[in-house]
Amino acid sequence: MIKAILMFNNHGKPRLSKFYEHYTKDTEQQIIRETFHLVSKRDENVCNFLEGGMLIGGSDYKLIYRHYATLYFVFCVDSSESELGILDLIQVFVETLDKCFENVCELDLIFHVDKVHNILAEMVMGGMVLETNMNEIITQVDAQNKMEKSEAGIAGAPARAVSAVKNMKLPEMPRNINIGDINIKVPNLPSFK
Amino acid sequence: MALKIVKGSIDRMFDKNLQDLVRGIRNHKDDEAKYISTCIDEIKQELKQDNIAVKANAVCKLTYLQMLGYDVSWAAFNIVEVMSSSKFTYKRIGYLAASQCFHESTDVIMLTTNQIRKDLSSPNQYDTGVALTGLSCFVTPDLARDLANDIMTLMSHTKPYIRKKAVLIMYKVFLKYPESLRPAFPRLKEKLEDPDPGVQSAAVNVICELARRNPKNYLSLAPLFFKLMTSSTNNWVLIKIIKLFGALTPLEPRLGKKLIEPLTNLIHSTSAMSLLYECVNTVIAVLISLSSGMPNHSASIQLCVQKLRILIEDSDQNLKYLGLLAMSKILKTHPKSVQSHKDLILQCLDDKDESIRLRALDLLYGMVSKKNLMEIVKKLMLHVDKAEGTTYRDELLTKIIDICSQSNYQYITNFEWYISILVELTRLEGTRHGHLIASQMLDVAIRVKAIRVFAVAQMATLLDNAHLLTGNMQRNGICEVLYAAAWICGEFSEHLENPMQTLEAMLRPKVATLPGHIQAVYVQNAAKLFATVLKSQEGNTDGTVTQDTSQLMIERLPVFVQSANLEVQERASCILQLVKYIQKLQQKDVEVAEEVSALFAGELNPVAPKAQKKVPVPEGLDLDTWINEPPSESESEDEQPKAIFTKEEPKHSRARHTEVDEKELARRREARKQEQANNPFYIKSSPSSQKVYQETPGVDHIPVIQIDLTVPLKVPGLPMSDQYVKLEEERRQKERAEKKKKDKKKRKEKRSGRGKKHDSGPESEEDITPAHMVDIVTEEMPENALPSDDDEKDPNDPHKALDIDLDNLEMSGHRPLADSEKIPVRSHRAAEAAKSPVEDRDADGIATQLPKKKHGKEKREEKKKKDKDRERKKSKDEKKKKKHKSEEKDGDLLGAEVDEPVVQSEEPSQASEPPTSNSAEVSDLDFWLSNAPVPSNIQEVPKVAAAEAASAAEVISGGAQDSEPDEPKDAEMEATKPSKHKKKKQKKEKEDKEKKKKKHHHYHHHSDGVGEESVQNGTVEEEEEPLPSMSNYCLLAENSYIKMVYDIQGNLQDGSQVVVSVIFENKCDSFLKSMEFNVLDSLNSKLQRPEGSGPHDSLAVPFQLPPGVSNEARYVFTVQSIVMPQKLKGTLTFIVKTEESSTHEKLDFKLHFTCTSYLITTPCYSDAFAKLLESADLKSSSVRLEGVNMPFHHLLARICFHHHFSVVERIDSCASMYSRSIQGHHVCLLVKTSGQTVSIDAKCDEPMLLGNVLDEIKQTFSQC
């Protein structure tokens, strides 16, 4: 079982938090902070597994994380999950994000956290891995987005126009500030699937 | 109004959406909180509007704020509103918000039940999907209970996308509503073989999660998983299955043997590291489970260790980490094979990666020996010095202590060294483990008597330098050590060189800043030291020292008397008064030392931590009975006027007390003493504890080697344990040299002179003698302590509730679920289901539905029968022995005691069901496990079972010949018959042909009949190869005289009637007459009897049977509910008439009303069929048949024939079929075939009926 999925940047700002077990919101924030603290002080070329989170888990739980450009992706899992499998899952997740956002960068995720949630929901459900095939995930996400678009129809057009205008005005549109691309072609881990 | 709407939508355009919010927050970095609070106000305004789009937008923003840690629980109701929007866009936003912020105590959750149910059954798969995803995050016990049935239906949804989600969410449902596990399990199991890999993977996932917590219940699935493992190519599924096997093997070592080979193959063949790693892990688990029985797996161990070494040496840190992790598992059972890689592991201790160092530490634990302990600990101490992070350093500290103290200090040869290590560890700043060090100090000082002198000296120094430990308030944790130091110094003060100095150290004003519990120990032990000082000065006529000591105490103690801590205050004032009194006596020159030290006389023995728990309850003591009569209700409360109490009560009790005179008291005291003396659990005063010491060789008897004081007495803060290493080295060398001299003769003597514990410990590679002769006092346990399991399960563990025996469930389809166990269905049909009769269920419970599986009960029955036969006919016995070779062994054992269990199982009760069927299941598993070749055995099961059944039948007939008509167990025997069915099929076919003349209008038994049916719409081409002959008649019962086969057909005219046609065949050479047919009615199904006869009367068969003749009789049954199959018990009685005599015989049987038998072949045209399918109220379900090796038209013909369907349309390898139940339910099938796989998608307006029909279809094809 996956207990939680967290995403935060190099400064510990949460970009996504998904808890599959209930915690109070204060505990959740503490967990994010603690996890960031644990993960961020680790060197770049050490292993991606980490024990010793106090708040989340216990001896049975592990933090499995990957660091891409400005973002940390952290999965908190118990012993029923395969460590290397979860690492691959993170890779699949990031690659899926990359496909869905076309060259994803941190700003995409900041501004579209709901979409990230929707993509994640096609991969992991209630703490259990639902789908690991990237094409299948993308198909389902696209189909749902298409449906959303068709529902918005003509009524949605002005709103979209407005938001386009709003976006134009603003100086800090994504990619103007180069927070860094997550161009993830991580070499290790020979073929999982 | 219209204006308002327009205005609303224009407003909406300029509302902040999520992006605006995020942008805003980023632009207000300085006053983020303020900005967000204004945003929240805006959101609150938006939520008040009617426009759902505005609300959804607001909720979407709230979801973001929730992530940032803001409380959004106040919007829960609005979230529900958005969830219930008809638009997918908003619905998704709503469910996302709900999944992020709802939890079990959110009260609006109960409002969502109906909305979720609606969404689950939505025609749009994404509505369903979104609802399932959301539900998986916030499912509550109530939701789980109410929706379990809906979700279960979705498990058979046509879309794999929904199926996989439904399967996965079932795990959450099980957790919240454990009652749903039993009813849902068969379907879950079915999904393991779903055509869609995603669904399959989900099912594997769920079962693995379940099995991880309660593996024993899933042992019977091992063959299925084994099949999956050998066939699947999906690494995710493989990993899960292999992990599952890892959990199962400890329960069943034979499984391990079976697994080794395929796993080894996988290890060699796979390129995926993750899979390789899991394989190695499971092989290790297997090896562990086998380690006791099978020594000869060194090849596998070598393979594992080799592969792990490769992983550890890999440059990828992840693999290194996992390699070490797996290595530690091998270590437990095969330490030798790991120890050869010590170099590698020590190398990992220097790794820059903390996770890896921690893992290497774990490994070290198992690698120490007497020889290398000091060396390893030295290395660790170096790491302690280097480590910056407190977590890692604390981990090191606990590891050092663990390593040293493991198995009762087995590896420590020099306790002085250990004490100095402990003292060195106290220098650690900010460690959390002060109490750990303290308890080690106490433990060693108490249990190793020889070390006390040294320990006391060390502790005294520690106390003297207490300021070094407490100087910094951050070092808080470590001051626990002072607790131990103070106690040791006090308790063993006779060993102190300078008690006066230590006393002074303990009474320093600074002590008052220590935590209360430590101060208390200080005060108490100061008193002990005081006593020691007095005693040491006893002979001394010059009283100044004692006077000074008393004065010191009196001066310093008042600080503690003022302590805020109760304990400290109380002890301090007691002792202060005591000292004052003593001072007075001293001034009068009275010798007080003796009396004062008597206060602290006696020694404390270590008591095992669980000693109290293990005290057995003495015989005859019932802890639950009242000691006094419980106060009765009426007496206790207000009703009783108070006057009565005050008047009467005291008088009464006082009167009683005065009656007891002195003599009586003396007598009682005597009796009590007597009792105490006899009671082993009463803690007696000194004699017993002294006895303990006499038994263990006391300190005095042990030759204590003089401590070599080349080591200067140490100041904390200076590492000195290193010197011990050198010293030890030298000592050992010296010893070795000495030993060489003495060796030949004196070895034995030397051993006997050594301390007890060390003798019993395994003699390590090289006889390393401890530096001191050490006596480790074992911890005391109460006499006859009960051995008990220590690691009890956490009672709050949600998985505990899921510990449900599932085997019996598989045995007979889904039938033996009690009504109470069924998932509540929210519809009027629930009432119908509730009617389902009790007897009926019981009958089902006893019978087997799957012929290939044998009931354990029957087996016992067989054995019993055998035993009886053996007594009577020994000649026959031998023949049987051959057949039952395998069972014979326990047959003898069981024979004697078999009577009782059989009688028990006679009672048709649900309760008796699980164990019996379980044993049958287990025997199946046994069979699978005991069979070496893998692929063949799956097919072999039915064969062997059939053979067994056949022999059982033979036994029965033997029994019948012995003419015991009243044999009550006959009923049970019948259950074995269906399994015989298969074998006899061929024979029956022939018979059927003969009986063609007597054929009935609904009696289709060979190709002609089938032909007629399947051509109904002219879609089945006739020129296809001829069909094999088929018969719907199945065996009802049989003995040496008569054989009964039967078929059940629905009655078109009457929706509540079915007709059972029974063919009776006379098998013997005698005339059979006066046959009477009777069936035990259930609430649901009744045999129609002629008017006037009672409900239990039997019906006469309207013919007699000459030898070799068969005839058919028909019986009409009325049934109420047709959605479930059921079984009815019945009996046929008849008279066998031979030339000389006639005997009365009886044959029991069980009528199986399948759901198929309620279906009537009804033609349907394709347009009507299409219309029917369009009507929304049909529930769908699907089933997949594997390995069906027959032409498609044969397949269709079989479905038509056995299950009363008609073909509506057939296009290539796809056909639609239709049937109708006697109560008018429509059943539509879409049968598709590709290769050997047949998938059947089905729709019906009664899901239960459909499920059962599909099961029966599946079974039909599994038999051929």
From TrEMBL, chain A:
Gene3D superfamilies tied to this protein: 3.30.450.60
Residues spanning the membrane: none
Function: Part of the AP-3 complex, an adaptor-related complex which is not clathrin-associated. The complex is associated with the Golgi region as well as more peripheral structures. It facilitates the budding of vesicles from the Golgi membrane and may be directly involved in trafficking to lysosomes. In concert with the BLOC-1 complex, AP-3 is required to target cargos into vesicles assembled at cell bodies for delivery into neurites and nerve terminals.
InterPro entries linked to this entry: AP_complex_ssu, AP_mu_sigma_su, APS3, Clathrin_sm-chain_CS, Longin-like_dom_sf
Domain AP complex mu/sigma subunit: residue ranges: 1-147
Top-level taxon in the UniProt lineage: Eukaryota
PANTHER family hit by this protein: ADAPTOR COMPLEXES SMALL SUBUNIT FAMILY (PTHR11753)
Membrane topology field: Peripheral membrane protein
CDD domains given in the database record: AP3_sigma
Lyase in keyword set: no
Keywords of the record: Cytoplasmic vesicle, Golgi apparatus, Membrane, Protein transport, Transport
GO cellular component, one term: Golgi apparatus
Protein name: Adaptor related protein complex 3 subunit sigma 1
Gene Ontology process terms (BP): Golgi to vacuole transport; intracellular protein transport
UniProt-annotated location(s): Cytoplasmic vesicle membrane; Golgi apparatus
Family: Belongs to the adaptor complexes small subunit family.
Organism, scientific name: Cynoglossus semilaevis (Tongue sole)
From TrEMBL, chain B:
InterPro entries xref list: AP3_complex_dsu (IPR017105), AP3D_dom_metazoa (IPR010474), ARM-like (IPR011989), ARM-type_fold (IPR016024), Clathrin/coatomer_adapt-like_N (IPR002553), Mu_AP3 (IPR058898)
Coiled coil: none
GO CC entries: AP-3 adaptor complex; axon cytoplasm; endosome membrane; Golgi membrane; presynaptic endosome; terminal bouton
Basic and acidic residues bias: start-end ranges: 639-675, 726-740, 812-844, 868-878, 966-977
Cell location: Cytoplasm; Golgi apparatus membrane
Keyword Amino-acid biosynthesis: no
Bias (Acidic residues) ranges: 777-794
Low complexity bias (residue ranges): 944-960
Sorted UniProt keywords: Acetylation, Coiled coil, Cytoplasm, Golgi apparatus, Membrane, Phosphoprotein, Protein transport, Repeat, Transport
Keyword ATP-binding: no
Domain AP-3 complex subunit delta: 660-807
Ranges of biased composition (kind: Polar residues): 906-921
Main location: cytoplasm
Membrane topology per record: Peripheral membrane protein
General function of this protein: Part of the AP-3 complex, an adaptor-related complex which is not clathrin-associated. The complex is associated with the Golgi region as well as more peripheral structures. It facilitates the budding of vesicles from the Golgi membrane and may be directly involved in trafficking to lysosomes. Involved in process of CD8+ T-cell and NK cell degranulation. In concert with the BLOC-1 complex, AP-3 is required to target cargos into vesicles assembled at cell bodies for delivery into neurites and nerve terminals.
Family membership: Belongs to the adaptor complexes large subunit family.
Record's protein name: AP-3 complex subunit delta-1
Species whose genome carries this gene: Cynoglossus semilaevis (Tongue sole)
